[in-house]
Amino acid sequence: MRIGVLELVALSALLFASAVHTAVPLDRRSSLLRSWREQAALEPHPVPLLQTDPLYDYTAIKFPSNGSVDSLAAQYAERTGWENVGRLGQLDAYRVFRQRKGGRLVRRHLEGGVRLSQGKRLVKRGLVGGFGNRQASSNDTAWRDITDPLYSTQWHLVNTKEIGHDINVTGVWHQGITGAGVTVALIDDGLDYSSEDLLDNFDFKGSYDFNDKTKLPTPRLVEDYHGTRCAGQIAASRNDVCGVGVAYGARVAGIRMLSKEVSDQDEVTALNYEMDTNWIYSCSWGPSDDGATVQGPDQHIEDAFVNGVEKGRSGLGSIFVFATGNGGAAGDNCNFDGYTNSIYTISIGAIDHLDKHPYYSEQCSAQLAVTYSNGAQRGVVTTDLGLRSCTDKHGGTSAAAPLGAGIFALALSVRPDLTWRDVQHVAVRAALPVDTGDSDWTDVAEGRRYNHKYGFGKMDAWRIVETAKTMKHVGKQTSIACPRDEAHTEIPVLSRQGAPSESASRKIEITAAQVAVAKMRRIEHVTVVVDMSHDYRGNVEIWLESPHGIRSQLATVRQHDSSNQGLADWRFMSVKHWGEDPVGVWTLHVRNAYLPKHRGTLKAWQLTVFGESTDPDTRPTLPPPSSGPGPNTGGEHNPPPPAKPVEVDDQGTNSMQKVYSLMVPLVLVLGSGIVSALAMLVYMRRRERKLADMRWTALDAIGNSTIEEEGFRPRGGGASTGRPEDDEDTEVFEIAQTASGSSGAYKLPANEAVSLTDDEDDRTKGADSTETERLV
Ligand SMILES: *[C@@H]1O[C@H](CO)[C@@H](O)[C@H](O)[C@H]1NC(C)=O
Ligand SMILES: *[C@@H]1O[C@H](CO)[C@@H](O)[C@H](O)[C@H]1NC(C)=O
Ligand SMILES: *[C@@H]1O[C@H](CO)[C@@H](O)[C@H](O)[C@H]1NC(C)=O
């Protein structure tokens, strides 16, 4: 009896020690989470984050930057009786004033002021279309060290079926280039930093929740999985969970903004949030892609982009990557979205695994390049909401933009000194034309080709990184703004549908003298502002023809756009003239192209060409050391180890080690106590099992379980919260897929399936486990 007890004590001591040992990774996770939550509680509000009061109207005023903005603002407040509540986001020239709603109208004071919207809703550009079944090959790891269970299904990274139809990244990883030192912020609906696939690469500092005004970007709504999936595409860790991100050594920050309506103040602040920590902002959202909307950022939001490219990344410029939009099927064109057609953003569209244009991806002359997403029955495999959850249902141009952002992270990790325009040049030069039989491919300047569906072509990670390595800084940005042409030209009316349509044309010349004054070496972006009246806006086609005969489509027919509002100084943009010499006659063509009898007038237009100056860029060539992720200044052959959340990680690990060393002697003392604990455990287990049986019966009766963990609500069918249409479709689609059982079920090798059916996963995911079940 005595010997038995001693043996038990020794055994349990051993068991306990090993339990402590294996529990360390799990505890590391909780200690990281705890540490972030503690820091979040201490974190003051970012920049002047304006808490808005529904009883007030808010107005932003931009003051001339030559004077003292504060004294001008004080005078302004005195004159109007409005209350100055501080700077707008990070924009030094702006002050926000508020006045009680229904107060005296003082319109005359509004010159230069803009009433701030407190409730704008932006649309996520999620999955469009469906998938059939597909078999995953288990043999397709060119980069053989990666053991993530779903890596072999991530065809966008390594495609062994359709050879060459991937981003060609393995040669980049092979050099040890994995995005180390770069943080990509996902401006989205949250980021599940507690996922084991994202935990290690989560950037706490760069994150903020603008919807719930708190530091951690926790997904809270049923449909808040979008940002997590995008983050997984960029920086999912190399581990035993799901697949890997394209830049698995980079870090991701979550800026939660799309889950509720946002005020203009929040949007401005979000776009410049921690702009020295966050180098790249991945934005898979925008105005509605319904084929009828014409909407862009108001001036103050545009100024946030300008502020980002001027001051972000220590003056080298924030990289804003935007999805072109999912309105392709509705005939939408990304030139009617003022976010994607801004010269400060890089617009990335989608291609499918056959290198073809998926029907949803929008085309326009502002699109720089494309990269992979869903289409032709195949989706993108990435991390999902949950501890160890994955999905194979990611898609839309929503998936293309983060993939592009991840590729830029690879480039910036070897060349952190590239400016925002250098990065655009790299993207233009490295792009590879795809689907070359398509009739829209046109020869453009410097031997390149351009297609409104594909931009300059697809992003090839290897080519982009190699181009970045040898990229010489481009000169300063310069521009030539031509005088506004008050055209007042009637657009010829179609007599009947299908009749040959004539266009109205207006010409403007850029002279060599103007180019000399502007010191312009060559063109980058071209913008055209159009003022037009029309009784059926979507009936109009507009294109710009350069002196070299290269034609940019600006407006294309949009059948759904029946607005009779025309265009009020709408700005179109084209990158198709990149590299051209601006000298010569530029022609704007406008015509009615579809319906007869509709009429309109081109009232005025104005052309601006932006380009590279012969003056060198005088901005800093290397960011000064910051408290954010350190820039990787090492050569490409000596990459640093993957970025880790340093402070937090160290603290966590250290404290765990302390705990562990304290525990070893304690084990002996507690040994005898454990014996009784074990007995207790056996008893509890039995009891628990009995309870569990009862519980499952109960759950069966109500048909659904909603188990909550750490404030997350499981996703799954049912809950509708007035979310954007396209995502509602996604939800419906996924439910339908589940119901019909025709989902994209993988046949995974048994050992790979194990990690997906992980006990903990099932337990914590509750209703969400449908996706997992379908995957297995
Ligand atoms: C600032 O510029 C404005 C025009 O933009 C001018 O009217 C004003 O006099 C200038 N103020 C100073 C102090 O230079
Ligand atoms: C998988 O790879 C191995 C060796 O790398 C090869 O022998 C085998 O034929 C491949 N299987 C398939 C299905 O391609
Ligand atoms: C893909 O990358 C490899 C290096 O890994 C390179 O040799 C090859 O040229 C690249 N493909 C293209 C189309 O550039």
Which key features would you list for this structure?
776 residues, alpha+beta, Rossmann fold, Jelly Rolls, 7-stranded parallel β-sheet, 5-stranded antiparallel β-sheet, 16 helices, 26 strands, 20% strand, disordered C terminus, binds 2-acetamido-2-deoxy-beta-D-glucopyranose, transmembrane, membrane, Peptidase_S8_Ser-AS, glycoprotein, serine-type endopeptidase activity
Would you kindly provide a written description of the structure presented here, covering whatever features stand out?
The protein is globular and about 100 Å long. A seven-stranded parallel β-sheet has the order 7-8-6-9-11-12-13, with helices on both faces. Among the domains are: 55-115; 149-474, 3-Layer(aba) Sandwich (Rossmann fold); 477-616, Jelly Rolls (Sandwich), CATH 2.60.120. The two termini are 49 Å apart. By secondary structure, it is α+β, with helices and mostly antiparallel strands. It contains 16 helices and 26 strands. One 2-acetamido-2-deoxy-beta-D-glucopyranose (NAG) binds next to loops.
Gist of the model:
With 776 residues, this protein is of the alpha+beta class. Strand 14 and strand 15 form a beta hairpin.
Write the layout of secondary structure elements.
Elements (H helix, E strand, L loop, with lengths): L1 H21 L1 H19 L13 E7 L6 H12 L2 E6 L2 E10 L12 E3 L7 E2 L45 H5 L8 E6 L19 E2 L16 H10 L15 E6 L7 H8 L8 E4 L1 E2 L12 H13 L7 E5 L21 E7 L15 E6 L7 E4 L6 E5 L2 H18 L5 H11 L11 E2 L5 E2 L10 H9 L7 E5 L7 E3 L11 E8 L1 H7 L1 E15 L5 E6 L5 E5 L11 E8 L9 E9 L7 E14 L32 H57 L22 H16 L9 H7 L2 H7 L3 H7 L1
Parallel strand pairs: 6-8, 6-9, 7-8, 9-11, 11-12, 12-13
Antiparallel strand pairs: 1-3, 1-4, 2-3, 5-10, 14-15, 16-17, 18-26, 19-26, 20-25, 21-24, 21-26, 22-23, 22-25
The structure holds 2-acetamido-2-deoxy-beta-D-glucopyranose (3 copies).
